[in-house]
Design a protein that fits this description.
By secondary structure, the chain is mainly beta. 14% of the residues lie in helices and 46% in strands. It has helices spanning 2-20, 156-164; strands spanning 24-33, 38-46, 49-55, 64-70, 75-82, 85-92, 106-109, 113-115, 119-127, 131-138, 169-177, 182-192.
């Protein structure tokens, strides 16, 4: 009987672990920085793996930069694609510097709320010495980003989510300085639940 109970507990925990990170698909966002420069960012999520790609503009021939965090190797794979070809470089996570100081940051959980389009959303507010970030967090995209903390050092919304310890993915977010000037603004364009090719992670 004890063996049966142990087996059941193991299977239950295993199912919980697998289902906890079950989202697979592509998230499209648009990000605007303090200078008004806009970038389209595609996020490729396959359960517990993630990669993201920057497109410099809407021109199909423009340069694309794809980044693949590799926690086991403690490195970030950077893939640059141009009309002339593709190049790959690996950057050690220790060499990824942060321009955001979150020392002493205060985090508030303001949600959740329900969205007809994106389901249950968490709401986070992170206040640092120089900025205030407010971000929506999708519970539908149930990835645990804590494992990628050493790679996402320069995104306010991701830092807020990682600091909260929650699973999920940031959707619409805005970061302003203490005078109310926008530092960064991210807008969700689309979320597609589709099969993601292994090619995006290598």
């Amino acid at each position: 009987m004890l063996n049966i109970i142990n087996t059941f507990c193991f299977l239950f925990c295993f199912v919980q672990l697998v289902s906890a990170q079950s989202f697979e698909g592509i998230v499209e966002t648009r990000q605007i920085d303090a200078n008004g420069v806009s970038n389209e960012i595609s996020w490729y999520i396959k359960k517990d793996r993630i990669a993201f790609e920057f497109k410099t503009n809407s021109d199909k021939s423009a340069m694309k930069m794809r980044f693949v965090p590799q926690p086991k190797q403690n490195s970030m794979l950077m893939v640059i694609s141009t009309p002339d070809g593709e190049s790959k470089t690996e950057v050690n996570a220790k060499d990824i510097n942060s321009e955001i100081n979150t020392a002493g940051a205060e985090l508030k959980v303001l949600g959740p709320r329900n969205s007809a389009e994106f389901g249950e959303l968490g709401l986070l507010q992170m206040t640092t010495a120089s900025s205030i970030t407010e971000t929506e967090v999708s519970k539908m995209i149930d990835i645990n980003l804590a494992a990628y903390a050493s790679f996402f050092k320069n995104d306010y919304a991701l830092l807020a989510l990682i600091k909260s310890g929650q699973s999920g993915f940031p959707l619409n977010s805005v970061t302003k300085d203490k005078n109310g000037k926008i530092i960064s603004k991210t807008t969700i364009v689309s979320i597609r639940k589709i099969s993601v090719s292994e090619s995006y992670f290598k």
